[in-house]
TrEMBL record:
The keyword NAD applies. Residues 45-430 form the Aldehyde dehydrogenase domain. It comes from Levilactobacillus lanxiensis. Pfam families: Aldedh. This is Aldehyde dehydrogenase family protein.
Length: 482
């Protein structure tokens, strides 16, 4: 074959191959078929939901951190304009707390939850080479949410866990199933529109206790995070999987004789009243030194507390709000103080935010986590007795405690002896969760406070594996002898 003929033949072959390649490139790349569902992360079976979340997570884990940041921004931009409507929807479904407080908590969860920025690797170098620690995903995390903070927990947990490269199966509380589903559906819409990824957070069309139990045992669930009652936390802890569990609390507020009483009264009343006390971190009782007890109670009344002194009225309140099995009556959890007073037929003036009365340390309204704006006051002769009493009434949960004092040794002693996941000095306890009555405080939002399993206020790092990479000949700026 002559040179000209050979060149012509080669051109023909190249032309054919290029035409074939152009045709192939024009075709859409094949997509893995997602398990059938109802759309936007909602499925009819646990298996289908977890299969979809796992498939998404495998692809998501290969994405760079910049992609994760894009996911988080989509969530923030999507929910941001709708916080008031979401807060109203939570209140409409659960009947607990206040709309304004929920809006504040939602804002805190959306913009104050720690994210991808926490995952910078740690590096050590030396004569023995280089060691690096990276934070890597677990996989699909099984989450159980509460009825007290349903929308906030969806946002808070999703931002932390998705920042870590995980996806989520979310088990909704039956008492907040509608708003939880709405949040999950819209979260998936926002993320898919921004990134093209589906089923980042999945849930069931009809949630149930049985489906949560099935989820906890599922082989493709790599980790559990439970924000709920003791029973469901116990189920998570015996599942055989790594579990992050939020437990009970009964936070005492200690007030010693050196405290700024005006500030202490304002803080304990405002924080107890915030969202009608359904935050597990909220002050549940006050333990005060006798020398300042009367002044403190008077200032608490000025701050919005209603004082009951009649023994029969206190007995009526106790019987009405605590069931025979010793647990709080769900009828009054998260209800306004005025609703509770009206039900107990206790007359009052104005619009009190909190109900208070003096009580012994063994009174059931002192020792029970009520989740209502009821704030008993326990009087003690001195600080030593007050601290010991606070330890007793907290119940060994090691959840949250606070102190109001200008005595630094007292603050140190209380922090040491209480040994709680959250400890606040001279402030409202809601400050430690990031929320406040006028916005949010500096610090990370915290709606899953894992006291039983020891993580405390959870962050993005809580939901990642800490992987150690070692290179004996790794890079170092040290001088080396040749």
């Amino acid at each position: 074959m002559q040179t000209d003929e050979l060149e012509t033949k080669i051109r023909e072959i190249l032309h054919q191959e290029l035409a074939k390649q152009a045709s192939t490139d024009a075709e859409p790349s094949p997509q893995l078929a997602q398990p059938e569902g109802l759309g936007n992360g909602i499925f009819q079976t646990v298996d289908a939901a977890i299969a979809a979340a796992k498939q998404t997570q495998v692809a998501y884990a290969d994405k760079p951190l910049a992609f994760r940041k894009k996911v988080i921004k989509a969530i923030q931009d999507g929910f941001g304009p709708h916080l008031k409507e979401i807060a109203q929807a939570i209140w409409d479904e659960t009947g607990m707390g206040t709309v304004e407080a929920k809006k504040t908590k939602l804002k805190d969860a959306l913009y104050n939850t720690p994210g991808v920025e926490m995952l910078d690797p740690e590096v050590q170098t030396g004569d023995g080479g280089m060691t690096m620690y990276e934070y890597t995903p677990f996989g699909v995390i099984g989450v159980v949410g509460p009825s007290t903070n349903p929308g906030e927990t969806v946002i808070n947990n999703s931002i932390m866990m998705l920042s870590g490269g995980n996806t989520l199966f979310f088990g909704a509380h039956p008492g907040a199933k509608n708003i939880t589903r709405w949040m999950i559906e819209h979260l998936n819409k926002y993320v898919e529109k921004a990134t093209g990824m589906k089923n980042m957070v999945v849930s069931l069309d009809v949630p149930s206790i049985e489906s949560v139990q099935e989820m906890m045992k599922h082989p493709d669930i790599a980790m559990l995070a439970v924000t709920g009652g003791p029973a469901v936390v116990h189920q998570a802890l015996i599942s055989g999987k790594k579990a992050v569990g939020a437990g009970a609390g009964n936070p005492p507020a200690i007030v010693d004789e050196t405290a700024n009483l005006d500030l202490a009264a304002h803080d304990v009343v405002t924080s107890c009243a915030f969202d009608n006390n359904i935050l597990c971190t909220a002050e549940k009782e006050v333990v005060v030194e006798a020398s300042v007890k009367d002044d403190l109670i008077q200032k608490m009344q000025t701050a919005g507390a209603f004082l009951i002194t009649d023994a029969d009225q206190i007995a009526t309140l106790t019987k009405m709000t605590i069931q025979e099995n010793g647990t709080p009556s769900r009828t009054y959890i998260g209800k306004d103080a005025t609703v509770i007073l009206d039900a107990a037929k206790i007359p009052y003036t104005g619009k009190p935010k909190v109900i208070t009365f003096e009580a012994k340390k063994d009174h059931p309204l002192v020792t029970t986590e009520m989740l209502m704006p009821i704030l008993p006051v326990v009087c003690c002769p001195d600080f030593k007795s007050a601290l010991q009493t606070a330890v007793e009434v907290e119940g060994g949960h090691h959840h949250t405690a606070s102190i109001h004092s200008e005595n630094l040794p007292h603050i140190n002693q209380a922090a040491h002896r209480m040994n709680t996941s959250i400890f606040v000095a001279n402030g409202p306890t809601f400050a430690a969760t990031g929320v406040g009555d006028n916005g949010y405080y500096t610090g990370a939002a915290a709606f899953t406070i894992a006291t039983p399993t020891g993580e405390g206020t959870t962050t993005t790092k809580t939901f990642t594996r800490r992987r150690r990479f070692t290179s004996p000949e790794g890079f170092s700026l040290r001088n080396w002898e040749v």
